[in-house]
From TrEMBL:
Listed name of the protein: Serine hydrolase
GO MF entry, a single one: hydrolase activity
Keyword Mitochondrion: no
Gene3D superfamilies xref list: DD-peptidase/beta-lactamase superfamily
Keywords: Hydrolase
Lineage: Bacteria, Bacillati, Actinomycetota, Actinomycetes, Streptosporangiales
Domain of life: Bacteria
Ranges of residues in domain Beta-lactamase-related: 23-381
PANTHER family, sorted: BETA-LACTAMASE FAMILY PROTEIN (AFU_ORTHOLOGUE AFUA_5G07500), BETA-LACTAMASE-RELATED
InterPro entries, sorted: Beta-lactam-related, Beta-lactam/transpept-like, Diverse_Enzym_Activities
SUPFAM superfamilies associated with the record: beta-lactamase/transpeptidase-like
């Protein structure tokens, strides 16, 4: 069981306890008025856990509370983990960021780009640029997600069976082959579009390493860092938070979760974790790739991953497709698996340049602020996350409590 607790008085690391209490009051009110079933918040600074709070239920019908060891589906907070795993292979010389993905996954040779026409009879042209590993890490490959419902290519993903849950019985290799058979949304490297790219990275890991993704992540990240509760299956189903959605009238209702023993090992959205485990992952990043003697990456690699990689230093507002976002994408770039704040004023959100982050579809979010030696993790379980935006409220509430 993953034990986690406050390790120092908040004032010792620069937090005003009275101002920290504002955070709990705000999110407790959101639970009490039905926006969240329950939540857990962990704030750490200078390696010390200064604030740990929980409120509400992990299972409303059963009357079970959110506890410090509750297991959450972290959905897209899986993506930074998979991106770190890819970079361990990069550090060993087993791939280059400029490598065409088809070198390892031949199904991605001879890709085509959508031009016009309906999903049933699209007009396409040959891609002039191959999809490279770098494109997958930065979500500039031209891949997409079916749930956007904005483009014909999104529709083609749904027609191929990716409408809600991924096709029953299809494993990671099968999914990747099916995605590779579909046209790209745009020329690789020409735009940013959040997508299934990280799932493709998971398959890349399997092919290069010769190991299934779950075993590779366990050997390279989870076991060295002591993340004993993190994986594609729950260590204790009784501690799993129930997944909720909102009925049309706003009432929270349980919705069918992904299977607890998945056929598909999704590096993009498949992991289950706890606050304590993910805290160890963020501390490894904050410390430059090492935690308690276990080194996962070099400091230079972490620094390289967490800088803006978008061409010309542009931000997501300028370079990205118009897809969902809880806060302004102005002033926010994208690195190798992380969003990166490059201009907090342009972002219109209290924060720090150099902060990097990501979130998950069921109301989970984290960020790492190297300048302030700060990490923040928020976990809830209500999908989609847009019904309970986290970053816009949580960032100012955390930073207003930091007074040194």
């Amino acid at each position: 069981m993953s034990a986690v607790s406050v390790t120092c008085p908040p004032a010792k690391v620069g937090f005003d306890p009275g101002r920290l209490a504002r955070i709990d009051r705000y999110f407790a009110a959101g639970t009490d008025d039905g926006r969240w079933p329950g939540w857990l918040l962990l704030i750490s600074r200078r390696g010390e856990i200064a604030h740990l709070s929980a409120h509400g239920s992990r299972d409303i019908a059963a009357g079970l509370p959110v506890e410090q060891d509750t297991l959450f589906r972290i959905y897209s907070m899986s993506k930074p983990v998979t991106s770190v795993a890819v970079m361990t292979l990069y550090e060993e010389g087993r791939l280059l960021l400029t490598d065409p993905v088809a070198k390892y996954l031949p199904e991605f040779a001879d890709m085509r780009v959508y031009e016009s026409g309906p999903a049933a009879a699209p007009s396409t042209r040959p891609a002039t640029e191959p999809i490279r590993v770098w494109h997958l890490l930065t979500h500039t490959a031209g891949l997409t997600y079916e749930f956007y419902r904005q483009s014909v290519v999104d529709e083609m993903y749904r027609a191929a069976g990716f409408d809600g849950p991924y096709p029953t019985g299809l494993d990671l290799a099968g999914c990747v082959e099916r995605w590779a058979a579909l046209p790209l949304l745009f020329e690789p490297g020409s735009q940013w579009n959040y997508s299934v790219a990280t799932d493709v990275l998971g398959r890349l890991i399997e092919v290069i390493s010769g190991l299934p993704l779950d075993r590779f992540l366990a050997e390279r990240i989870f076991e060295p860092l002591g993340m004993h509760e993190t994986g594609f299956e729950p260590t204790d189903p009784q501690r799993m938070a129930t997944l909720y959605g909102q009925a049309p009238e706003g009432r929270l209702v349980p919705i069918p979760p992904p299977p607890l023993q998945p056929t598909l090992l999704s590096g993009g959205h498949g992991l289950i974790s706890t606050a304590g485990d993910y805290h160890r992952f963020t501390q490894m990043l904050l410390r430059g790739g090492e935690l308690e003697g276990a080194r996962v990456l070099s400091p230079r690699t972490v620094a390289y991953m967490t800088r803006n990689h978008l061409p010309g230093g542009v931000d997501l507002e300028e370079f990205g497709q118009r897809v969902f976002s809880e806060i302004s994408n102005g002033g926010t770039g994208f690195g190798l698996g992380f969003a990166v704040v490059q201009d907090a004023a342009k972002q219109k959100d209290l924060g720090t340049e150099g902060e990097y982050s990501w979130g998950g579809a069921a109301g989970t979010a984290f960020w790492v602020d190297p300048a302030e030696e700060l990490t923040v993790i928020f976990l809830s379980q209500c999908i989609p996350s847009s019904v309970q935006p986290i970053f816009g409220q949580l960032r100012p509430l955390v930073y207003q409590a930091l007074v040194d």
